[in-house]
UniProtKB/TrEMBL annotation, chains A, B:
Gene3D superfamilies: Winged helix-like DNA-binding domain superfamily/Winged helix DNA-binding domain
Taxonomic superkingdom: Bacteria
Protein's recorded name: Winged helix-turn-helix transcriptional regulator
Domain HTH arsR-type: 1-93
Lineage: Bacteria, Bacillati, Actinomycetota, Actinomycetes, Catenulisporales
InterPro entries assigned: ArsR-like_HTH, HTH_ArsR_DNA-bd_dom, HTH_MetalResp_TranReg, WH-like_DNA-bd_sf, WH_DNA-bd_sf
Any one Pfam family match given in the protein's UniProt record, by short name: HTH_5
Stretches for region Disordered: 107-130
Keyword annotations of the record: DNA-binding, Transcription, Transcription regulation
Length: 130, 130
DNA sequence: TTGACGTATGCCGATATAGGCATACGATGG
DNA sequence: CCATCGTATGCCTATATCGGCATACGTCAA
């Protein structure tokens, strides 16, 4: 067996940095291939090939305008990536690990039978690294 | 040039579904290799190899316990993925907002007891598979 | 020690990739 | 019709991959 095709899903398509750059560029608005070629500073066939991959996973859409092809971002498939990685958000902050420990300690101190006050509601703190 | 190594970064490491499964499993707590083998239902060498990749990008850590090796999640590197994809979140939300607007308009147009005018909404969708 | 256990590694084969280069192709303007 | 522009595609090479299988390695129990 070989590695999964880049066109398998957004995860694989987006693993390539150049393709991320393309998406980043398109996030600023529609662009023609030539536009992207200039923006990325790589050969045109390279860009066209990456665009093909992105199109196949539904991350970009195309529109014909005269002899040019205008590409646009279609972020939908990224949602799978987002949804997956989002679940790990709370895990990468050491500070948060510390907080976890503290909370656990508190819970323990309070003793069994006591409920911690609705910890479910405080979900959206932004845990940044110092 | 070939495709970037899976050990290049979290993006590449995580493109493999099996490795995501491993991380998901480890999110529930430390696990030995045998544990993971059972959990995933694949051959042991396969698991060991995936774990190697994950270790090389810093997504897991190991600890020796007797003859077993206990792996733990180390989510840090996922932050790069999260930070990148997070920027796109609002784009599919916007889409929904748009949809909401359209639906609202339709509802308003229809009014109490009115029919919606045949919506010619469907835009592009050029999902092609050559 | 011997042997069983838990893991890691080596080798193989089939498959794809990314980019370089040349070229094919459709649209447009003389 | 012909030349040119804007893009896509084909061919090529070097390189990795993932999984299967066998096996090496370290640890623990008799």
């Amino acid at each position: 067996m070989a590695r999964a095709a880049t066109t398998t899903d957004a995860f694989n398509a987006v693993a390539e940095p150049r393709r991320r750059e393309i998406l980043d560029a398109l996030a600023g608005g529609e662009r023609s291939v030539t536009d992207l070629v200039e923006h990325l500073g790589v050969a045109q066939p390279v860009v066209s090939k990456h665009l093909r991959v992105l199109r196949e996973v539904g991350l970009v859409g195309v529109r014909d305008e005269g002899r040019a092809r205008i590409y646009r971002l279609e972020a939908g498939p990224l949602r799978a990536v987002y949804d997956w990685v989002k679940g790990y958000e709370r895990l990468w902050s050491e500070r948060f690990d510390l907080l976890d420990t503290v909370l656990e300690d508190l819970r323990a101190e309070r003793g069994p039978g006591q409920q911690p006050e609705s910890p479910e509601s405080s979900q959206e703190d932004d845990h940044d690294q110092p």
